[in-house]
Amino acid sequence: MAPRIGVYVCHCGGNISEVVDIQKVMESLEGPVDVVQIKDHEHICSEVGQKLILNDIKENKLDRVVIAACSPQFQGITFMKTMEHAGLSPYVLEMANIREQCSWPHYDYPQEATKKAIDLTKMSLAKARLDIPLEKKVIPIGKRVLIIGGGIAGIQAALDLGDAGFQVYLVEKDPSIGGKMAQLSKTFPTEDCAACILSPKMADVPNNPNIKLMTSTEVKDISGYIGNYQVTVTRKALYVDPDKCTCCDKCVEACPVTVPNEYDEGLTTRKAIYLPSPIAVPHSYILDDKTCLGLFPLACSKCKEVCEPNAIDYDVYPTEEKFTVDTIIVATGFDIYDARQKRVYGLGKYENVFNALEMERMLAYAGEGKPLKDIGNRIAFIQCVGSRDEQVEHEYCSRVCCMYATKLACLLNRERPGKEIYIFYTDLRAYGKGFEEYYKRAQSEGIKYIRGRVAEILEDPKTKKLTLRAEDTLSRKIIESEFNTVVLSVGLIPNEGTRHVAGLLGLSRSQDGFLKEAHLKFRPVDTLIEGVFLAGTVQGPKDIPDSVAQAGAASSRAISLMNKGVYEAEPITAQIDESICIGCGMCADVCAYKAIEITVVDAHTGKKTAVVNEFLCKGCGTCAATCRSGAADVIGVSDHQISKMIEVM
Amino acid sequence: MDLQTKLRQEARKLLEEKLVDVVIGYEDEGAPLRTTPCFITDPQDVDRLVWNPFCDHNLARYLTARKDKAAVVAKGCDTRAIVVLINENQIERKNVNILGMPCGGIVDRKKIYNHLKNGDVREAVLKDKVITVKGLEFTADLMVDDFLADCCLSCRHRNPVLCDVQIGENLPPLDVKDEYKKIKQLEESTSEERWEYFRKTLSKCIRCYACREACPLCYCQQCFTDQNFPAWVGKTTDISDTIVFHIMRAFHTTGRCVDCGACERSCPNNVDIRMLTKKIAKDVKELFGDEAGLQLEEKAPLSFYNEDDPQDFIK
Amino acid sequence: MKNAASKYWRIPLDADRVKTPKGKIHILKERCKGCGFCIEYCPRDVLEFSDEFNEKAYHPPRVKDEKLCLCCHLCELVCPEYAIWSTEEKDEELHHP
């Protein structure tokens, strides 16, 4: 049976009709029997216009609609809803974009524009003839969330979702949650103690009955799709039973091995058996099997000998756990730039050059009245180390360094009077709430800000004092001055874990390497993978309030998806013609969404073909473009439709 | 013991011990300067197998869509094709037993015909790198090395890259002076000259698809050129259609072509098919550092991306 | 600091305050049959084969760097000939890891 097509040509209030000869376009479409009616309208998107379409569909029994108007990006959704109201599939609607792609750019050439409008409309008509009334796929969706990363963003998202009654799996690769924030001394601009504001939140996590906390755990594999993500995690062996451990510290005394303490950025030592941090959650000792003298064979076992509650068991192994979730929040955080790559600053070479995170830890110790080291009175901060630096390919601003340097400077200044603190900056960015006031306060407290990049640092081999050479670009003077300590304000960079998770989920990354959001302005926490959201610095450098806000946004986006109970997925997906497919696997290799698998479809002949998982497929068409024999195609935008469109042009 | 005898011995062993169902090799059916692919299932027939510079077919062609276990006589380039086929799920490694032949190059008989000004060769006898050809009115002694196929002159993989049994010792690598000499000449010419060159050579094509049938990697169930829904390419021998056919076929070999030259040797009308495929192979090597068929479980260069891939081509 | 990740290059600032056991290694060269177990299994890589021969014409182990020894006693546990053992030095001198 021939289709019954209705065509509408829109004037767009003159936007189109002033350039394109609407009458000519309509005349050109006359002829084919399946074109049941051709109408024009001043504003087809208006309520009147939509009603006209609705009526025509009913009265003329239309089963295809072609609208020559603006971009489908602009009004496509409107007309798809109209189609649904009329009881038709929204996928038998075709729009010819005769505004953005015709009347606007070809304003000065009305005749040619009319020709092009005719072509565009005819092409849409040709495609409409072959449209299939597709239905949206309905996927049931439950209330389980995986949160990857237990920093402040992950903790906040877990608490928000847990409090709202959702089942949360919080996976953290380190032995304790808390992330980088747990290492900070105080937070800008209010100078709250980081541990004091963070530890109550950390403590809330294991107490929340809806949150399953998995520390020392890494995500090994994720497959599936929204509403049905199959997650495999590897849980490291901890060797200490947290329920039995009383944190008596006897094992630490007994342990003969000392290694740099990660929590203190290697400024202090820890033993191979240790408490990850004083505020660690879960609060239990763990045995680091990489630095222990050896468990296979058991070399030392001194810790077990002294453990009174018998909490240590060497005979445990990493385990794998599998579970299913409906949505995923990625909050894998950041790493600090390894300033050793900027050799001119001498980190790793000069003992009095520190990075900012090391200084945070030193201040934390000083705050407790047990300083690790006398850092002297003359202290310099160097800003933008690894940020806004094309040489190291980090062009972006890390957003937090200006303020954390100001904070560290203020804290150092107050710790013991008589200090002289200089901050060498490129531009000072005090954009956030209370930031400018904080900057002013720091200046009034005597912190000296000098605009200019430091060219190099030289160490006096005897005194270990550091000579900085820089240009003050405001006074145009060369500064050469001696300091006791130099702090490098290192930037934020994407970390290895993010790369791993992005690979597992097929998430795209921005040019800076951080994960890419679906839309920078309107969908800042969504990703292009349905049901996967971003929280915190994984999406780009940000401070604590922004990370917390984004975590809240991500959890609310996840809630709004899961609360509906079902998810409607686009029906435009790839399909494979099994009679042509020969199973070479090229399509599976190129699929960014891992939606294609090569499967034996005929056990008798052993024939292998590609099989598309229609829930994972996003209809991007890469497989169709790659397939040499044309076995892969996209339903709704088929090769056949496109060749017919080209033919009528 | 010469390679041919060794090959026969090995084939007999494989068949007698029932390690394979069939041995795919070359036999001499009497036509001068030629061998024919043969399929031997009976150990008593192994003496039909021959090995000489006329064994020009790429027998990997016969490995796809087999369900039995096959042993195959394979030159260096043929083993590369087999590796690509394994990587593309067309052969299972366990189902193929590769009898690897170090190969010093095969004879392009078209070069001999050209040399003899198309004199009708009735008989050819090979002895120690000298071919004695006889026609009705002439006899000539020709050196094998003077008539090697073009792809053999720039061959970098004379020894099998993958095999179960290697027949004979590895040959030393060939001292290839300028592998891409002809390609470079073409690259340096103007676009008009290039167009003229391709128009001229591709207009000889009669769309017999011998190149496609000879190519071990043209294993599609339905070739794009045979499809009519949609019809990707017209079926006439008009230059516009033949050009589309050859360009698309060449693109389909991107990162896969092992330069065995089977397409060009099979062409009845001397179309320079390798100029397209070799140029693409050169580009792939330069852009992606990749040569097809050297490693198992290697992904084709166009089927994956790395974060640090150059993007400066996006303008 | 054998297993220290390369990320941490600095000698920890509290290193001078940390006390670790100091082992003294005793080797009965003539008992050794050169099996190399002690060298292979030592978690701190303290031992190596010496160039000298013992009576049985084996190379007995020798101490590469005694400061590394944490006196875990593993060498004495694995030695089939009871030819090696360690004792803990109880001096009060601080031992730098």
Structure, briefly:
The complex is a heterotrimer of chains A (649), B (315) and C (97). With 649 residues, chain A is an alpha/beta fold. Chain A starts with a strand and ends with a helix.
Number of helices of chain C: 2
Question: How many independent structural domains of chain B?
Answer: 2
Question: Biggest sheet of chain C, open or closed, and with what strands and sense?
Answer: 2 strands, antiparallel
C-alpha-based Rg of chain B, rounded: 20 Å
CATH topology of chain C: Alpha-Beta Plaits
Low-confidence stretches of chain B: none
Order of helices and strands of chain B: HEEEEHEHEEEHEHHHHHH
Shape of chain B: globular
Query: Could you tell me the mean pLDDT of chain B?
Result: 91
Q: Major beta sheet of chain B, specifics?
A: 6 strands, mixed
List the helices and strands and how they pair.
The complex is a heterotrimer of chains A (649), B (315) and C (97).
Chain A: E1 5-10, H1 22-29, E2 35-41, H2 47-59, E3 64-69, H3 72-85, E4 93-97, H4 99-103, H5 110-129, E5 137-140, E6 144-148, H6 152-163, E7 167-171, E8 186-187, E9 192-193, H7 194-207, E10 211-214, E11 217-225, E12 228-235, H8 250-254, E13 258-260, E14 269-271, E15 273-274, E16 286-287, H9 302-306, E17 319-325, E18 327-330, E19 334-336, E20 353-355, H10 356-367, E21 378-385, H11 401-415, E22 420-425, H12 435-444, E23 448-451, E24 454-459, E25 466-472, E26 477-483, E27 485-490, E28 492-494, H13 496-505, E29 532-534, H14 544-562, E30 566-569, E31 574-576, H15 586-590, E32 596-602, E33 607-612, H16 622-626, E34 632-634, H17 639-648
Parallel strand pairs in A: 1-2, 1-3, 3-4, 6-7, 6-18, 7-10, 18-29, 20-27, 21-22, 21-27, 22-23
Antiparallel strand pairs in A: 5-30, 8-9, 11-12, 12-17, 13-14, 15-16, 19-28, 24-25, 25-26, 31-34, 32-33
Chain B: H1 3-16, E1 22-27, E2 36-40, E3 49-50, E4 70-74, H2 76-87, E5 96-100, H3 109-115, E6 121-127, E7 130-135, E8 139-143, H4 150-153, E9 165-166, H5 181-188, H6 191-202, H7 210-214, H8 239-252, H9 262-266, H10 273-288
Parallel strand pairs in B: 1-4, 4-5, 5-9
Antiparallel strand pairs in B: 1-2, 1-3, 6-7, 7-8
Helix pairs in contact in B: 8-10
Chain C: E1 22-27, H1 37-41, E2 47-49, E3 61-63, H2 74-78, E4 84-89
Antiparallel strand pairs in C: 1-4, 2-3
